Every structure is written in C-alpha cells, then in structure tokens.
Amino acid sequence: MMLENELFEQAPVHKVYFKFALPVVFSMVVSLVYNMVDTYFIAQTGNTNLVAGVSLGAPIFTLMIALGDIFGLGGSSVISRLFGQKRDEDGKRLSVFCFYAALLCGIIIAILLLLLRTPILYLLGADTETFAYASQYFTVIVLGAPFIIVSYTPANLLRTEGFATASMTGTILGAIVNMILDPLFISVLKLGAAGAAIATVIGNIGADLFFVWFLLARSKRLSIKPAKFHIQSDEIRQIFAIGIPASITNLMQSFGMTLTNRFLLPYGNDKVAAMGIVMKINLIAVLIMVGFAFGAQPLIGYNYGAKNHSRLKEILRFCYAFECGIALVLAVLLSTLAPGLVGLFMQDASIVAIGVPMLRMQLFGMVFIAIILVTTCTFQSEGKAGGAFLLSVSRQGVVFAVVIMLASSVFGYRGVLMAQAISDFLTAILAVCLFYKLVHKEDLLTSTSYN
C-alpha cells in the first residue's frame, strides 16, 4: 500500500505518467486493431453495401462503450479521489456498485434496442441495399451488450489501484480472441457482418472473464463481491455526474458518425463506405491521444483528492505539452501514409481516391483534439461535472451539428468533409476558456499550496 501511495505522490511525473498511460495507449491501439480487422475482412468481400452496412451499425457499438464509461470513468474518477483521501473501504464499495450497475445496464439496453431495431437502423441511415447487412451486425452486437458494457468498467477501475498493466492485459486478451475468430467467422464460415459481430462479442466475454478473475484474486482495494454492495444516493450522484459527461463523449461520437453518414448518403454509398474506412484509420491517432490523456486520470484524481497542488500543476503541464506534440506527429504521419492506409482496406481505386482527401481533412484537427482531451480528462478527474459536460456535448455534438449543416449548405460535399476539423478548432477554444475559468476560480496558478 505504501509503495502504491509513493507512486502516486512522489515518483517523477514523466515516469509515473508513462507507467499509467502506456498500457492504456497500448490496449486502445490493440482494441482498434481488432476493430480494424473486422473492417479488413469485411472489405475483402468486395461488397460495398456490406462495408456500408457495418459502418452504419458501428455507432451502436460506440453507444455500448459510452454506457460502460458511465460506470468505468465515472466510478474511477470518484474512487481515485477517495484513494487520495485514504478512504479505501469507500472506494471498494463503489467498485462493487459500478460492476453490477454496468451489468444491469447492459441487460436493459439489449432488450430496448432489440425491440426498436428497425426504426433505429433506418434512423442510422440504412436503405434497401444496406439494411440486411446493418441488421445482422446490429442484432448480434446488441445481444452481446451486457458483456461489452461490463468489460469497459473494470478496465477503467483497475487503473485507480495502479493496475494499468492488468487493465491492458484484459483488453489485449479480448482483442486476440477477436482477431483469431474474425477470419474464421467472416472468411471461412461466410457469416459476413454477423460473423464480425460474433467475434467481437466473444472477445469481450474473454476480457470479462479475465477481469473477474483478477478482481477476485489480486485486487486489494477493489471488489465485485455482492456482500460489499452498499452505496448512498450522494455517491451515485457523484459517479453519474462525471460518468454521464464521459459517456456523452462517446455518444456524441456515435451521433457525429451517424450525422456524417446521413450527410454523405446523397453523394452515394461509396462515400459512406469510404468514410467508414477513414474513421477507423483516424481512430488510430485519436485513440492513442485518448490513451495518453486519460492514462493520467488516476494520477490527476489522486493528487487532486490529496490536495497535492504543486504535483498536480506539474502533471497538467506535462500532459498538455506531450499530448499536443504527439498529436502533431500522428497527423503528419497518417496524412503522409493516407493512400497506402486507405488502400490497405479496399483496393478499389475509386474508394481510395475518395478516402484519401477525407482522411487528410479529418487530421487537420488533431492538435485541437489534444487540447480538448486533456482538458476533459482534467475536469472528469477533479469531479468538475459542468466543464466535462460542456466539452462532451460540443466537439461531435452541438458544435459539430451546427458546423456540418452550415458547411454542407455552403460548400456541399467538401463542406461535409471540412466540418469535423472546424468543430475541433471551435471546441478547443471553448476548452481553453473553461480551463482558465477553473484555474482562476480555484486560484490554481498562484495558490501557495502549489509551492
């Protein structure tokens, strides 16, 4: 226990930052790889409508990640601050609640989505050519909702106890299972969209089994034992106050994907298919940045809870500088490699020609995304629900919706492609304003508690 506290309180910032962040980054990249494996094997069928159908169903998977984040990120924010205050038993109680609440949420959402399958698919943009493929993917993913939502909860909670490597291991285990099953279900058994979804669900079940074992056998400050289940209404409010904005970030990603697809539909299903591939490639950069930003969440939350302001200031300075630097490198690298990356998924020359400028447009906003992510993580880690909420509903939500409507009406197809980068820029300005408001409200830059 003493060694864990020293890690949070005294170890060099760059050393402990990478200790927490690198496993998160690695697990996110691996998760993205197995997500891209789905796309790769589906694209190899040469069926544009199949690729488009799976792309249309993808926001449902993102929805489930978002729901898992309510209890994973919301719970880890509160628990890390409790650990900073040396209230370990309270943190343990809350971890039990988060696990079983995520499981119940998964069951409820599966029932609701199955009942509303047809109208939801048409809302997502399915048409007569893509509906069958989108429905296959949707149905299987929804049936696996309890396993998917649960897996994102302990993956986040374990990092509050310093088990970033264990969190990574569970995620990688699920990814390996998925990647092994993808070619079997999609290429060998010819299950198409359903095969990709089945592999994803089984992969998440594998991750769940590892996390349950680790929590029962290795964790000292977290639990899933029902006997520890006890929570007060104010504690639930605290979890949801941070978890819902964190969830909204992913929900807005689903919203943004759906809105983009709907604005692209008038230009043809080939544009939707190309954007589905581009979004997967773009996620390489975004998820690496998310990993580095949110890998620091337990460190920020712990030191904020412990009122160790001088260390908190040092952590934030390092986070902003490093995140912006890595964003710039990734943007240049992926933009340079754009033709090869798009062509890796689909050798159709017309799709490559469409996808390359799409990808480069998306990459214009990378540095702005870095600012947004670190600021959002700071608000979530410190329990500042208002700031976290505003940023959550902006980048791919309210701001994006306004921008894509205006840009598409003025610039047409090119305006649809420009919309995300413009939204990133505007939301980054909002993030900077909110951060400095927080700094001056709490006197964080000049407070003697930093010295």
UniProtKB/TrEMBL annotation:
Keyword Transmembrane included in the entry's annotation: yes
Location(s), subcellular: Cell membrane
What InterPro entries has UniProt attached to this entry?
Answer: MATE_fam, MATE_MepA-like, MATE_MepA_subfamily, MdtK-like
Q: Which UniProt keywords apply?
A: Antibiotic resistance, Cell membrane, Membrane, Transmembrane, Transmembrane helix, Transport
Give TM regions: 20-37, 49-73, 94-116, 136-155, 162-181, 193-217, 238-260, 272-294, 315-338, 350-376, 388-411, 417-439
Main localisation? membrane
Membrane protein topology class:
Multi-pass membrane protein
Q: Please provide, in alphabetical order, the Gene Ontology terms of the cellular component aspect for this entry.
A: plasma membrane
**Has UniProt tagged this entry with the keyword Cell membrane?**
yes
A molecular function (GO) held by this record is:
antiporter activity
Q: Which GO terms describe its biological process?
A: response to antibiotic
- Family indicated by similarity: Belongs to the multi antimicrobial extrusion (MATE) (TC 2.A.66.1) family. MepA subfamily.
- Would you tell me the protein name for this molecule? Multidrug export protein MepA
Give the originating organism.
Fusicatenibacter faecihominis
Query: Lineage of the source organism?
Result: Bacteria, Bacillati, Bacillota, Clostridia, Lachnospirales
